[in-house]
Amino acid sequence: MSKTTIDGRELVRGIAISKAWVLEENQSVFKTRLNLEAVDTRIERFQFALRETQIELMKIRNYTEDRVGTPQAAIFDAHMMVIDDPVFVQAIESRIQSGIDPVEAMDDWRKSSQTKLSHMNDYLKVRSADVDDITIRIARHLVGTRTFDATQVNEEIIFVAEKLTPSFIASLNPEFVKGIIVAEASPFAHATMLAQAMGIPLMQVDRPDFLRIKHGASVIIDTEASLVIVNPDADDIRAFKSRRDAYIQSLETLQSLKDKETRTQDNVDINLMMNVNELSALNHYEEVGAEGIGLVRSEFLFNGDKNLSNEETQVDLYRSILKSVHENNVVTIRILDYGGDKRFIHDDEVEDNPFLGTRGTRYLFKHIDLLLTQLRALFRASVHGNLQILFPFVTTVDELKDILRIVDQVKTELKEEAHPFDNDVKIGVMIETPGAALMAGEFAEMCDFLSVGTNDLSQYMFAADRTNARVAKYNDAANPAMLKIIKHVLEQGKNADTPVCVCGDVASNTLMIPILVGLGVRHLSMDHTHILKSRQQISRLSVTSVEKLAQHAVECTGGEQVRLLVKDFINHL
Ligand code: PEP
Ligand code: MG
């Protein structure tokens, strides 16, 4: 058997060797037809499939809750909500009544839901795996075939699959499943998040390479080296073992930083906070020693839930977030950021240039009830922790004046209704456009904190849509233009004694952290997976040296030059 070396991309970090178990493509169920004549019989079969799916999902949900955690189990509550949704049931039944086979009706619904999702941003696009998960499960019950039961695996293996559904991952036993290789996956997918929570290394490889991995072959998966080796030879196995030892050592070193302060060599404290896109991320809060939550993207917590308008549901949700962190740690919940590429609910208004349209705070002013309900719920939950409220995509000072007026109105109402709330909840704005950045001084005087959203700031700085791969090279956060504007915001924040956080993707980029700290950033917020590594990197920096580095970086002419400068700096640490 010849050896094959394949390049892979890490989705969940880890290193393992085992036998490949190649899973068959599970969408083939949609090719089956039931050939049932009577409409009533077809509807009955569909109803039966729904009931069976419901029972199965309940088991998976409880199994996940016991073995992985409550936030992860909530993924399956969302699946059950689809089955309970009368709009979904009616859509399928009316297709069945019009003469379409139930399996085909499921497949049609699956495809049209996925087409809708494909126009959404990365976080929502990946929900198509959840759509697969539900529809495949229902279709299997329609057809009467069994879902592959991974709980029965009792030998050490590495799963190899085209793509994976969350319920499949939830059924794995990490004692036997040493790794997973997939052709299609995303860091934001529920399946990835579950694998992360269960500590199963996950690697994505290109489709042609994926087809080269045969069932039963010996496989090394090594996210540290971004490699998959099929049929490794004795040298590979020796090298693997020493890399595995080094990997375990590096994990132990990182883990030892969990309860340490984030402090530079010259004793400057940096506040390392966590971004939350999914409630399940909160499970990692303690484990990485996060020092607060710098950004909860509230728009992702509802997943199009029709109960969004319900104030009580929101109070419960925010209370549970506030209670899941240490009392003194700050929790920054961002007001719904709809518009742009996030159009999950209320997506009736389609604009030609959504990124330049009714986005963020503009959207909320148009849908004022959404804003008022969320603000009321946030203030009511505020008594349970240290809440900060952050407004997205604020572009003018007048908008901020309106925001502050609405906040006051909500507080007055709550007082009149005798609802307790924290009167000192801090109000902040995201700096996401060059216009807002240039007015940072005025914003800083009027509100309690600023948060630089570098993902958006750079797309608007360089007029390069963040979702368009063709212009990705222009959208470069290391470009000195970005560094200059961040520096300006930091200076304005300092003058007004208003803290400035950076919460876009650059906050966790190892080439950007030295520059950001050098420019004066003292609050960073990032995905939990980056916190320990960032703490380790910061502990090796000294503010005096990164200030000089940042000064040089600002004087560069392009992003590439900045990166070379930082790489050289890091090599000499
Ligand atoms: C940003 O724009 O950098 C940001 C943090 O917000 P989002 O990525 O949700 O737009
Ligand atoms: Mg943004």
From TrEMBL:
<feature type="binding site">
    <location>
        <begin position="455"/>
        <end position="456"/>
    </location>
    <ligand>
        <name>phosphoenolpyruvate</name>
    </ligand>
</feature>
<dbReference type="InterPro" id="IPR050499">
    <property type="entry name" value="PEP-utilizing_PTS_enzyme"/>
</dbReference>
<feature type="binding site">
    <location>
        <position position="297"/>
    </location>
    <ligand>
        <name>phosphoenolpyruvate</name>
    </ligand>
</feature>
<feature type="binding site">
    <location>
        <position position="456"/>
    </location>
    <ligand>
        <name>Mg(2+)</name>
    </ligand>
</feature>
<dbReference type="Pfam" id="PF05524">
    <property type="entry name" value="PEP-utilisers_N"/>
</dbReference>
<feature type="active site" description="Proton donor">
    <location>
        <position position="503"/>
    </location>
</feature>
<keyword id="KW-0808">Transferase</keyword>
<dbReference type="InterPro" id="IPR036618">
    <property type="entry name" value="PtsI_HPr-bd_sf"/>
</dbReference>
<comment type="similarity">
    <text>Belongs to the PEP-utilizing enzyme family.</text>
</comment>
<keyword id="KW-0813">Transport</keyword>
<dbReference type="GO" id="GO:0016301">
    <property type="term" value="F:kinase activity"/>
</dbReference>
<dbReference type="InterPro" id="IPR040442">
    <property type="entry name" value="Pyrv_kinase-like_dom_sf"/>
</dbReference>
<keyword id="KW-0762">Sugar transport</keyword>
<dbReference type="InterPro" id="IPR024692">
    <property type="entry name" value="PTS_EI"/>
</dbReference>
<feature type="domain" description="PEP-utilising enzyme C-terminal">
    <location>
        <begin position="254"/>
        <end position="541"/>
    </location>
</feature>
<feature type="binding site">
    <location>
        <position position="334"/>
    </location>
    <ligand>
        <name>phosphoenolpyruvate</name>
    </ligand>
</feature>
<keyword id="KW-0418">Kinase</keyword>
<keyword id="KW-0479">Metal-binding</keyword>
<keyword id="KW-0963">Cytoplasm</keyword>
<dbReference type="InterPro" id="IPR006318">
    <property type="entry name" value="PTS_EI-like"/>
</dbReference>
<feature type="domain" description="PEP-utilising enzyme mobile">
    <location>
        <begin position="154"/>
        <end position="224"/>
    </location>
</feature>
<dbReference type="Pfam" id="PF02896">
    <property type="entry name" value="PEP-utilizers_C"/>
</dbReference>
<dbReference type="InterPro" id="IPR000121">
    <property type="entry name" value="PEP_util_C"/>
</dbReference>
<dbReference type="InterPro" id="IPR036637">
    <property type="entry name" value="Phosphohistidine_dom_sf"/>
</dbReference>
<feature type="active site" description="Tele-phosphohistidine intermediate">
    <location>
        <position position="190"/>
    </location>
</feature>
<dbReference type="GO" id="GO:0009401">
    <property type="term" value="P:phosphoenolpyruvate-dependent sugar phosphotransferase system"/>
</dbReference>
<feature type="domain" description="Phosphotransferase system enzyme I N-terminal">
    <location>
        <begin position="8"/>
        <end position="127"/>
    </location>
</feature>
<feature type="binding site">
    <location>
        <position position="466"/>
    </location>
    <ligand>
        <name>phosphoenolpyruvate</name>
    </ligand>
</feature>
<dbReference type="InterPro" id="IPR008279">
    <property type="entry name" value="PEP-util_enz_mobile_dom"/>
</dbReference>
<keyword id="KW-0598">Phosphotransferase system</keyword>
<dbReference type="GO" id="GO:0046872">
    <property type="term" value="F:metal ion binding"/>
</dbReference>
<dbReference type="Pfam" id="PF00391">
    <property type="entry name" value="PEP-utilizers"/>
</dbReference>
<dbReference type="InterPro" id="IPR015813">
    <property type="entry name" value="Pyrv/PenolPyrv_kinase-like_dom"/>
</dbReference>
<dbReference type="GO" id="GO:0005737">
    <property type="term" value="C:cytoplasm"/>
</dbReference>
<dbReference type="GO" id="GO:0008965">
    <property type="term" value="F:phosphoenolpyruvate-protein phosphotransferase activity"/>
</dbReference>
<keyword id="KW-0460">Magnesium</keyword>
<dbReference type="InterPro" id="IPR008731">
    <property type="entry name" value="PTS_EIN"/>
</dbReference>
<feature type="binding site">
    <location>
        <position position="432"/>
    </location>
    <ligand>
        <name>Mg(2+)</name>
    </ligand>
</feature>
<comment type="function">
    <text>General (non sugar-specific) component of the phosphoenolpyruvate-dependent sugar phosphotransferase system (sugar PTS). This major carbohydrate active-transport system catalyzes the phosphorylation of incoming sugar substrates concomitantly with their translocation across the cell membrane. Enzyme I transfers the phosphoryl group from phosphoenolpyruvate (PEP) to the phosphoryl carrier protein (HPr).</text>
</comment>
<protein>
    <recommendedName>
        <fullName>Phosphoenolpyruvate-protein phosphotransferase</fullName>
        <ecNumber>2.7.3.9</ecNumber>
    </recommendedName>
</protein>
